[in-house]
């Protein structure tokens, strides 16, 4: 009973040995064989047991819209394993109700477009540093080529970017915090499909002790960064994400009344963890899959390079230049459709709920498998399994039969707060890379996407970079 369908899921996923051709973007049998099998067997929606907990898996866009846009507060984020919570922080992703409203109001201004355009300068500088290193490497070879594990380079780069944009001058400490968080993530992945025996988190096992030590290290480092901000005048907050968040906590006058939207030290620490997790891994994966697709479709790579040349020549791109890259935006959106880093969205019901035709009892988990829905031919057309960024040429809301078909950043009040940030970051990096190099997949590349909390290339992304003339 405790195991529910978990053993079945493990078994079906183990049989995922299948390696795909690089032109084959239908990796669903690798990452979600259980959902595909049960949908065929039982129709949709269907119910299954995750450990002792019931979950409903829905595939219907209208039901997904009703659930994700619901503002009654009756669809909550799903219960999260303590390891995952320690990793992500109980920040914006997990808080609920009036706490969520308060957190979102404090954090929103930090992600305003004018602020993001300022951060673009930092993003481009970080990308140029990475590209310079690769350039040095390539220019040592007569043919101007170098083979690199680009997924690893992107992980380093997006850590660097989020450390700089979140923590400004304290970015070195930020990177230390990141390393502790990264190790915590490894523990979280290890325990993901194991059934948690109640109380087992408090036992002083070797793994728990390692986890507690890392959590302490992460917290101490973040406290150090935050405390370094409140200078003698108390106004040295800075233009980075942390500074803008602290700024929003300053009391303001509204209608003659003092209003304070505030977060406690603990809450700010949790938000910092959330930015880190949300900000580096997902973005590095978006970059990884974008380079993968542009390697498979070199004509698109060339098209983006031409657009870049038109908009900013060989100069360092600015936030304004980057905002004008329409072809690039479409390619990123198509990458998010086919290889979106967040594969599923989850909710649970706080009370018995009727959604469309179905009734969902209290406490049931709801799975919205965006990766599967993004390939629904009824909505995306017969070419749903193929790469075709032109489907976005009239904007994201006109790309499919319904305006909310792209679920990569989710929709509704809990949709991704960082989506403009991540699009700017991805454009900054791709622009700098495309200005210097052409790229192809290395013969060592093996196409085997896996779902490890996020969608990742199982064997990394080895790529051959060639310096442009
Ligand atoms: C390609 C990159 C990204 C993807 C695919 C992505 C995807 C998502 C998705 C699907 C959600 C909704 C989750 C749910 O409803 O359960 C979400 C929420 C969120 N994301 Fe992102 N994200 C990305 C980048 C970022 C970045 C760069 C940041 C911050 C620096 C960020 C911060 C957040 C936060 C704080 C939330 C919670 C919002 C709320 O509940 O109010 N994300 N993201």
UniProtKB/TrEMBL annotation:
Key word Transmembrane helix present: yes
Q: Which cofactor does it need?
A: heme
Q: Name one GO biological process term.
A: lipid metabolic process
* One example GO MF annotation: iron ion binding
Keywords for the protein's UniProt record, in alphabetical order: Heme, Iron, Membrane, Metal-binding, Monooxygenase, Oxidoreductase, Transmembrane, Transmembrane helix
Under the heading InterPro entries, the entry gives: Cyt_P450, Cyt_P450_CS, Cyt_P450_E_grp-I, Cyt_P450_sf, Cytochrome_P450_Monooxygen
Show the GO cellular component annotation of the record: membrane
Location relative to the cell: Membrane
Binding, heme: 416
- Where this protein primarily resides, as one coarse class? membrane
Give the family per the record: Belongs to the cytochrome P450 family.
Q: Would you tell me the protein name for this molecule?
A: Cytochrome P450
């Amino acid at each position: 009973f405790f195991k529910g369908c978990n053993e079945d899921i493990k078994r079906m996923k183990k049989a995922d040995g299948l390696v795909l051709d690089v032109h084959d973007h239908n990796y669903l049998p690798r990452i979600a064989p259980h959902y595909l099998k049960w949908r065929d067997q039982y129709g949709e929606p269907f119910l299954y047991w995750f450990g002792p907990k019931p979950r409903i898996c829905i595939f219907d866009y209208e039901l997904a819209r009703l659930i994700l846009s619901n503002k009654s507060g009756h669809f909550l984020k799903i219960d999260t394993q303590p390891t995952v919570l320690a990793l992500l922080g109980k920040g914006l992703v997990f808080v609920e109700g009036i706490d969520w409203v308060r957190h979102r109001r404090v954090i929103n201004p930090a992600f305003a477009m004018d602020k993001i355009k300022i951060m673009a300068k930092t993003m481009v500088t970080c990308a140029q540093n990475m590209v310079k290193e690769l350039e040095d490497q390539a220019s040592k070879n007569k043919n101007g080529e170098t083979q690199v594990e680009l997924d690893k380079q992107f992980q380093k780069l997006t850590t660097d970017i989020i450390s700089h944009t979140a923590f400004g001058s304290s970015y070195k400490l930020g990177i230390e915090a990141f390393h502790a968080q990264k190790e915590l993530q490894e523990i979280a992945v290890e325990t993901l499909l194991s059934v948690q025996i109640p109380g087992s988190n408090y036992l002083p096992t070797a793994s728990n002790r390692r986890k507690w030590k890392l959590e302490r290290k992460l917290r101490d480092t973040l406290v150090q960064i935050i405390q370094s901000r409140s200078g003698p005048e108390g106004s040295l907050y800075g233009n980075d994400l942390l500074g803008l968040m602290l700024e929003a906590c300053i009391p303001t006058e509204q209608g003659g009344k003092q209003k304070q939207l505030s977060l406690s030290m603990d809450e700010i620490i949790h938000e910092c963890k959330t930015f880190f997790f949300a900000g580096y891994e997902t973005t590095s994966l978006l970059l990884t899959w974008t380079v993968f697709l542009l390697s498979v479709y070199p004509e698109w790579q060339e098209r983006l390079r031409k657009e870049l040349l038109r908009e900013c020549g060989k100069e360092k791109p600015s936030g304004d230049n980057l905002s004008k890259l329409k072809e690039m935006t479409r390619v990123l959106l198509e990458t998010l459709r086919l290889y979106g880093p967040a594969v599923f969205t989850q909710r649970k019901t706080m009370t018995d709920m009727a959604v469309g035709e179905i009734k969902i009892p209290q406490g049931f988990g709801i799975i919205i498998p965006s990766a599967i829905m993004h390939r629904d031919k009824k909505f995306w057309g017969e070419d749903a399994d193929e790469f075709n960024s032109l489907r976005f040429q009239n904007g994201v809301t006109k790309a499919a039969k319904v305006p909310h078909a792209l679920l990569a950043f989710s929709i509704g009040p809990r949709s991704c707060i960082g989506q403009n940030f991540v699009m700017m970051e991805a454009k900054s990096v791709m622009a700098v890379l495309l200005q210097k190099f052409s790229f192809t997949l290395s013969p060592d590349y093996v196409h085997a996407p896996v779902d490890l909390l996020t969608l990742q290339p199982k064997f990394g992304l080895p790529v051959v970079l060639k310096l442009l003339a």
